[in-house]
Amino acid sequence: MLDDTNEIHPLFRGAPTTTEFKKLRKRLVRNTREAIEQYGMIEPGARWLVCLSGGKDSYTLLAILHELKWRGLLPVDLLACNLDQGQPGFPATVLPAFLEERGVPHRIEYRDTYSVVMDKIPEGRTFCSLCSRLRRGHLYRIAREEGCSAVVLGHHRDDALETFFMNLFHGGKLASMPPKLVNDEGDLYLYRPLAHVAEADCDKFAKAMNYPIIPCDLCGSQDGLQRQQIKQLLDGWEANHPGRRQVIFKALTNMNPSHLLDPNHFDFAALTRKSR
To answer: Which of 128, 237, 249, 276, CA to CA, is 20 to 30 A from 139?
Structure first.
């Protein structure tokens, strides 16, 4: 894709022309395309519901998917969707204006799940789990109404790493955030095309593009979460040993069941030695 303003998608108008930014953009495209191909996400002619929260990750997801489509590398129809959950202070006009100005097909849905969460969750407890389940249910409904085969989320490599350690330290299991799954009803895919993308790259990209970021803490439930503690732990490791996150992520793609301890994934009882 060329950088001439007449030959790029409107999501990239005003992009920096520096070598550093071009390398960043190329890396984002490469990593996203790699995940899409590696995990078998493409169904030619399919329609994807691309979820846009207004955070740096979802802006990056939207832009990179449109670049891939612009290049002819993603033969699917893209529909951006924002679910306004009624959080106090949510700037409801920001995303519609952003999408309309850039000619991005979209749907804005208002559902006051915030009041439901406030009513159900005791004071002092975090809202995220119930809020996420309610949001996911509405997104699946919207996907069906719009004829989409997949709901596409902006979770990146660092989200997968944090989830892995959350499960390790607090859940007692080895599990992360899958790049592709099928919903419980069996009729929709859930994709995470940024599975190989570093959070730092999303941050650099969204800031360089000057996208109108909407904070993720409007509900006030983010302080003190266990996930934040995991993030701080990973930050410390990365500061002392640069590249540590990538090494851990590589481990998630290189599992050896015979060197773990789960008999459900390796038949230890069937191991036999050769007779002399």
So the answer is: 249
Nearest CA-CA partner of 118 in 193, 220, 21, 236? 220
Highest mean pLDDT among 46-55, 120-129, 219-228: 46-55
Question: Apex CA 10: angle with CA 7 and CA 13, to 5°?
Answer: 80
**Cβ-proximal residues to 2 (8 Å cutoff; 6+ apart), any chain:** 8
**Pairing mode, strands 150-152 and 180-182:** unpaired
Full-model pTM: 0.89
Identify the sign of the CA torsion 18, 19, 23, 29. Answer: positive
The pLDDT assigned to 4 comes to: 46
**Residue 14's pLDDT band (boundaries 50, 70, 90)?**
confident
Task: Report helix, strand and coil shares of the chain as percent, to nearest 5.
Answer: 45, 10, 45
Q: Which residues contact 174 (CB under 8 A, 6 or more apart)?
A: 164, 167, 168, 260
Residue 47 has φ and ψ, to the nearest 5°, of: -125, 130
Ramachandran class of 103: left when φ > 0, alpha when ψ lies in -120 to 50, beta otherwise: left
Reading the block at residue 200, the tokens are: 């730092």
Pairwise CA distance, residues 46 & 149, whole Å: 6
CA distance linking residue 82 with residue 191, whole number of Å:
16
Is a pLDDT exceeding 60 seen at residue 163?
Answer: yes
